[in-house]
Amino acid sequence: MKFFLDFLPGLAFLVALFIPENRQEGIYLATKVLIATSFLQIFLGWLITRKIEKQYVIIFLVVLVLGSATLMLRDERFIKWKPTVVFWIFSLAFLVSDYIGRRNLTERLMGQVFNAPQTVWRQANLSFVAFFLLCGFINLFVAWNFSTEAWATFKLLGFLVLNIVYLAGLVMFLSRYAIEQPRSGED
Asked: How far is residue 163's CA from residue 128's CA, in Å, rounded to a whole number?
């Protein structure tokens, strides 16, 4: 269910982009849908888990600011900055987490599955920093060098593939530190 919630706004944005026959109007409809579904994402997440996901709130606030600018100024460049801003906020959060608190964000997210030494957690955390920075630059490259439709499609599908590849690599890197899980049905 969380996977669906994570991709709901992006999927809704992509679908809405292609609804109007006038492609220029598509970006504005898609932006309105993105604002609404980003709020809906927070609400549905709360209904399911009874807690508010910080990442959903951050994304909603960025969408609200850049989406409002896009709609008020009738300039799609603002909404095209959204993935970059979100990626760079996440990159900064991972970087700062290395210096604040006992455990960095990567260890907090994956520490129940892997028992790695601090140096390994730091390397993994810094890889998140670099990955999110790179994704921000990739978004800008695609946004400024390809059509809006190609950018929106890449934003959903391209970043999905990049995330899967990156996370698979990270899990392989951490796999030697996997915590042995007890098997059910065995004494």
From this structure: 10
**8 within domain boundaries:** yes
Instruction: Please say which residue of 31, 60, 80 terminates a domain.
Output: 80
CB count in 10 Å sphere of residue 35: 21
**Rounded average pLDDT per 10-residue block, the chain, 187 residues:** 88 96 92 98 95 96 98 98 98 96 95 96 98 98 97 96 97 94 65
Q: Model-level pTM?
A: 0.92
φ/ψ of residue 22, rounded to 5: -80, 110
Instruction: Please name the residue ranges forming H helices in the chain.
Output: 2-17, 23-49, 54-73, 77-80, 82-97, 105-110, 118-145, 148-153, 159-174
How many distinct structural domains can be found in the chain?
Answer: 2
Statement to judge: residues 92 and 5 lie in one domain: no
Nearest to 80 by CA among 89, 70, 91: 70
Residue span of the structural domain in which 40 resides: 1-80
CA 108 to chain centre: 17
